[in-house]
Design brief:
The structure is a single chain. By secondary structure, the protein is mostly beta strands. It has one domain (2-130): OB fold (Dihydrolipoamide Acetyltransferase, E2P) (Beta Barrel), CATH 2.40.50. It has 2 helices and 10 strands; from the N terminus they run E-E-E-E-E-H-E-E-E-E-E-H. The strands form 3 sheets. The protein has a 5-stranded mixed sheet. Strands 2-1-8 form a 3-stranded antiparallel sheet, with no helix packed on it.
Amino acid sequence: MTSYLLVRSGRARYGVPLSEVVEVMDAAEVVVVPAAHPAVRGLSAVRGRLLPRVHLEGLVTGQARPAVAPPTLVVAGAGGRSVAFEVDEVDLAAQGQVLPLPAEWTGPSAIGVAQHDGDLIPVLDVQALLARL
């Protein structure tokens, strides 16, 4: 069984492994900086540290972040790195079996998929996503 935080970013839902979630918080001020990836909005101060603030759906899909920042940040870390993911909604912490990715999977970097409300939700590989930045 794997525990994950179910979030919505844009129109998609994702699972973020709870073992990699540090905290969920209201979006704070952001310092805009030139970014290598179009999903990066800038930097936000979180507990005395400046973290990259990244729109989750933009990072997953390779698209630019939306003009208006979502209201919530999910602070996550993996491989010694941390990030503040912008999300539109945090639904719940769930626990379930994470199934292997289907052979034809073309979705985001994920450790597997979980069934939730009849849908397959990708449970994200945070370390692989951070490697994209």
